[in-house]
Amino acid sequence: MSSSAMNKYWIPHLDIHKKVITQELQYYLGPEATVRPFTREGEDGFLITTPGPCLTDEQIDDICVKSKEMWERQAAARASSGSEKPLKRPLHRPVVISKAGSGGGSSGSSRRRKDDRWRSDDRDRRRA
After folding, report:
1. Which domain holds residue 58?
2. Which of 31, 59, 106, 110 could tie 55 with a disulfide, CB 3.0–4.6 Å?
3. Residue 45: its pLDDT value, please?
4. Is residue 121 part of a domain?
């Protein structure tokens, strides 16, 4: 069916999990129906494109129930995996490079100046 004959409907995202509506939409509206995130007048939701009518109230209620179940499963999975999986924070431990007043900061800046002189000398040699 051509896209000009398709109907477009917007529904708010409230209580609807994107994965659930994506999985369920074609079951309710047929294989040509599509859904994508869409913002209408500043409110996030879903744009449904279908050759027929949009979802009924009962179908939207069913999607909301399945969405709630999905969020509960995800929360339970996060809670159970959190106790088994160690934090990665030891990998992100800060390493002191220099501290103010320790004298370490000036040697780093003088080294940088020496490197800059070397680079400029090298550039001059290449030009010649």
Report:
1. 3-83
2. 59
3. 94
4. no
